[in-house]
From TrEMBL:
Keywords annotated in UniProt: Carbohydrate metabolism, Glycosidase, Hydrolase, Polysaccharide degradation, Signal
Name of the molecule in the record: Exo-alpha-sialidase
InterPro entries listed in its UniProt record: WD40/YVTN_repeat-like_dom_sf, Xyloglucanase_GH74
Family per similarity comment: Belongs to the glycosyl hydrolase 74 family.
Gene Ontology molecular function: hydrolase activity, acting on glycosyl bonds
Length: 736
């Protein structure tokens, strides 16, 4: 803990095996502009212009008004689970203090993070209750709350273990045994979860505190009038099918959003309620009472400066689309802001998704009115955060813009840095991926043909780098007669669909195997030949107009192309322990001698369709291959006829990529995600894998959630890293 303000909260750091001093690297994000699900945004009630955003797998952010951007708060974190933020709670009396409830799911670590300097430094307190920052119900809350009358007291509503209390600013926690709902316990299956205690809100004008329970069969709202010591269930209000998911308190009113599910999907209906605290009278103030109303409600926020002014957001209202409703009279009448809004998405133009105008948003779980300025309203979606400063406009069009500067919250599956054209082409989860001509500019569009949710693999032609191929997972709206493969002849700026015809495997009826996202595609060095990893490897020399099976390969093999010689292709038979080579453009393959390589190749087996392939062809030399076999790198200089281990045996390599060689070196720069001396990180070798230097440091770990890595073939020292939640980060040797 470096900051003096945080010294009082500092905890002894666990002992850690020493590692070599990292090389000096400067790290930045490749700019996309948000891109993932942010379950909620919370303004600080203690200082104007201070806000926090929590994301489901990319950590938390703080809005810094002075610099006009969001600041990521957990980049130094090395625990994967902590990047899923379950709740955020700014201290309502001290703007420097903030708390996070961090935990990706009930299978991972959970902790309360405490900061006395706005998240610049943290004290991390592991807790016995599990969280679900990336589980269903992550839009509920806020579960973590600070008592405005006694700021050392915190309450946390857990998913599985009832209500918890801390009397010492989060240093220690105890279950509130007098709270009526003690939870349903940990779920039996990994993918199941509970809503549990869905929110905790303190009334700043009294000693009252309210908590909701969103477990079916136990749904209720509870009230305490002694700061959380004793509790009683409030009578009346929503019917049992309506789960209380979010609430806000202001001016003697509790505003409650309800849904039939905890979301973010699967919500059929919802309602909104107002509780007058003095007489505990419930009023149904649901904005849309039409019999065809779809979806529920989740975001709710009251204006701190104007009694009766409140906003709510819909969720899972797919037709005609989600919206924000605004009322000036305690919910007697509502204005649908979607109908009178327009969006300027120049900060993230890809949000148009190929249409003329960007949608209002989906999964609109988070909503907040600025407590210091009722004209500023923000809401979160499954892809971005929108903000308007025209929230008090009574008529005319209301302008919203993405509020995303500094936010990069995406799951990146794969990426390539071609030898020509744009420096970076990527494959994302949910967003398909992008071409980045400028790493500091959000792309105008994404890969749209074919329409894929995920791009799982990318490849480029070594001698014609404008020819790029990709494969992925079909979008839910894509018919099964569609395509999950595509090619581009202009560096990824426009695409054409590729379809592999039905194949008969082991006597079964012919069927298409290129629709499940598990058929990677690769391209020859001259861009003329595509080869696809269907169970029987298929080859086309005319852009998919005709196909032939690659002769000589066993079922399940996957082939890649040499980056220099268009006749050379290589394939791995994991089960048979063999390397195959084609010298006729993929038409036929024969086993390579592969001298020196271990006979057991099963450690090279891919665990899933999104894993990176363990063999990489060198972009500057024909016949040069690099092969990751169970964490150790092997190299062949003769098209697979012989291999030798080059890598430092102390480094266990997970993923690796190649970059431009250091001047005078015979080897490309190697970049790896791996572990050495107990330290996992990003490593670089300039001597063919003989020696490795860590190039990230303890301030740049991003939860150690990495998917892929590649050097740049045109810029020595530059490396691109695909993270699972913090977008693409790229680094270059620091000038300092």
């Amino acid at each position: 803990m470096a900051a003096a303000a945080a010294l009082a909260w500092a905890a002894a750091a666990p002992a850690r095996e020493a590692a070599a001093e990292p090389a000096a690297y400067a790290w930045r994000n490749v700019r996309v502009g948000a891109g993932g699900f942010a379950p909620n945004i919370v303004f600080s009630p203690a200082e104007r212009g201070l806000a926090y955003l929590r994301t489901d797998m990319g950590g938390a952010y703080r809005w810094d008004r002075a610099v006009g951007r969001w600041i990521p708060l957990q980049d130094g974190n090395a625990v994967s689970s902590y990047m899923g933020v379950e709740s955020v709670a700014p201290d309502p009396t001290d703007p420097n203090k903030v708390y996070l409830a961090a935990g990706m799911g009930h299978w991972g670590e959970a902790a309360i993070w405490r900061s006395a300097d706005r998240g610049a430094t943290w004290d991390v307190v592991p807790v016995p209750f599990r969280m679900g920052g990336n589980e269903d119900g992550r839009g509920l809350g806020e579960r973590l709350a600070v008592d405005p009358h006694r700021p050392s007291t915190l309450l946390f509503g857990s998913r599985h273990d009832g209500l918890w209390r801390s009397e010492d600013s989060g240093r220690s926690w105890a279950r509130v045994t007098r709270f009526p709902h003690q939870g349903l316990g940990l779920p039996a299956g990994r993918r199941e979860t509970h809503g549990g205690v869905s929110f905790v809100v303190f009334d700043p004008a009294s000693r009252s505190v309210f908590a909701g329970v969103a477990d079916p069969g136990a749904a209720a709202v509870y009230r305490s009038d002694d700061g959380g010591g004793s509790w009683r269930r409030l009578p009346g209000g929503p019917p049992p099918a309506m789960l209380p998911v979010k609430a806000d308190v202001a001016h003697g009113r509790l505003y409650l959003a309800c849904s039939t599910g905890i979301g973010p999907n699967g919500i059929a209906a919802g309602s909104v309620w107002r509780l007058d605290l003095a007489g505990e009278r419930w009023t149904d103030i649901t904005p849309d009472r039409s019999p065809t109303a779809e979806g529920g409600y989740m975001g709710v926020s009251a204006d701190r400066n104007r009694p009766g002014r409140v906003a709510v957001s819909s969720v899972d209202r797919w037709h005609p689309g989600d919206t924000v409703w605004l009322s000036d009279d305690d919910g007697a009448k509502w204005a649908n802001l979607r109908e009178r809004s327009r969006r300027d998405v120049s900060a993230a133009p890809w949000l148009r998704w190929g249409h003329e105008e960007a949608e209002f948003g989906h999964w609109t779980a988070g909503l907040a009115i600025d407590p210091f300025d009722g004209g500023t309203i923000a809401y979160t979606t499954g892809a971005t955060v929108y903000r308007t400063d025209e929230g008090e406009r009574r008529s005319g069009t209301m302008l919203w813009r993405p509020w995303v500067s500094g936010i990069e919250q995406t799951a990146v599956i794969t990426l390539i840095s071609p030898t020509g054209g744009a420096p970076l082409v990527s494959g994302f989860g949910d967003l398909a991926g992008f071409v980045h001509d400028d790493l500091d500019v959000a792309p105008a569009t994404m890969h749209l043909v074919p329409r894929l949710t995920n791009t799982n693999n990318l490849d480029y032609a070594g001698r014609k780098p404008n020819v790029i191929v990709r494969s992925g997972t079909l979008h839910a709206e894509q018919p099964q007669s569609g395509a999950s493969l595509g090619y581009s002849e202009d560096g990824g700026r426009s695409w054409h669909a590729v379809r592999v015809p039905p194949i008969a495997v082991r006597g079964q009826a012919p069927q298409r195997y290129d629709l499940r996202g598990e058929a990677p595609i690769n391209v020859s060095a001259d861009g003329a030949t595509f080869i696809v990893g269907t169970p029987i490897v298929m080859v086309t020399h005319d852009r998919g107009q005709s196909w032939a099976a690659a002769a000589g390969l066993p079922l399940g093999a996957r082939a890649i192309a040499d980056k220099v010689d268009p006749r050379l292709f290589y394939a791995i038979d994991v089960d048979g322990g063999r390397i195959f080579v084609s010298r006729d453009g993929g038409r036929s393959f024969a086993p390579a001698t592969a001298r020196g390589l271990p006979r057991d190749l099963t450690p090279a087996r891919m665990r899933g369709r999104e894993d990176q392939w363990p063999m990489v062809a060198e972009f500057g030399r024909a016949g040069a291959l690099w092969f990751n076999l169970g964490g150790r790198l092997w190299r062949s200089d003769d098209a697979g006829e012989s291999f030798r281990a080059f890598a430092d045996a102390d480094l266990v390599v997970d993923e690796f990529g190649l970059g431009k060689a250091e001047s005078g070196s015979a080897h490309p720069a190697l970049y790896a995600i791996g572990t050495k001396a107990g330290v996992r990180g990003i490593w670089r070798s300039l001597d063919g894998g003989g020696h490795w230097t860590r190039i990230n440091d303890d301030a740049h770990q991003w939860g150690l959630r990495f998917r892929a890595v590649s050097g740049d073939p045109r810029h020595f020292g530059r490396v691109y890293v695909a993270t699972d939640g913090r977008g693409i980060v790229w680094g270059e040797p620091s000038a300092d």
